[in-house]
Amino acid sequence: MTRPLIEGHGLIVSHGRRRVLDRVDVSVSAGEIVTLIGPNGAGKTTLVRTLLGLQRPEAGSVERQAGLVIGYVPQRLHVDPTLPLTVRRFLALAAPGGRADAAALLAEVGAARCIEQQVSALSGGELQRVLLARALARRPQLLVLDEPVQGVDFSGQIELFRLIGSLRDRRGCGILLVSHDLHLVMSATDRVLCLNHHLCCSGAPDAVSRHPEYQRLFGPRAAEALAVYTHHHDHAHAPTGEVLPVEGCAIHGAHEHHHHGHGETAS
Hints:
The chain has 267 residues and is of the alpha/beta class. The protein is 27% helix and 28% strand. The longest helix is centred in the middle third of the chain and has 18 residues, at 154-171.
């Protein structure tokens, strides 16, 4: 069996007298998408910082494959609107290969037309794609994405999760995805870890959504509200809004009203 790219064993982290992580185990393997979910304040960002070596655990250990290259997309990036910084220059900080390399990275994430735009003027979805391109510049074996759809509208979230899945398929990298709930990640993940300072439950997304610990955290109707449905689309949207053809596209997620003929449960 192939050794995971990164593993955390029995991780304990406290902030003052408050224990933020209590004996947490986590691992991510090549080609695997692992989603870390939990309520606000559950310790998700602390766990990511610990895995990245930015936070030292008071107990437990982190093991990484030798020479592991990690690409990281932070939860927030504030760029002063008075700072003249184009996307091309922003990417050059991580990809010194010049405009051609920057253009290729942006094309891969569907943001080629953003190359000469000011970073401060990008929409939420465009910024997340640019941050993904910057993380990919290092040719990472592991991508760590902290709340990658924050500030992105619903259709943009669908497109970003589809993009994350395609990046895994093309590059074969492992992906650790942090979210505050299961929502659309149902279709974009192989394994879910539900964290609330300790590891409440883990497994396939649909199994986790039915677990008593998950329902206790997110409400007794959480599983019903997150019932999986399949909704077929024959197109996608680029960051600019233009329609792109997509063959055999299936989206799974949460919905709050009936769609006849799909067999889902409405909340």
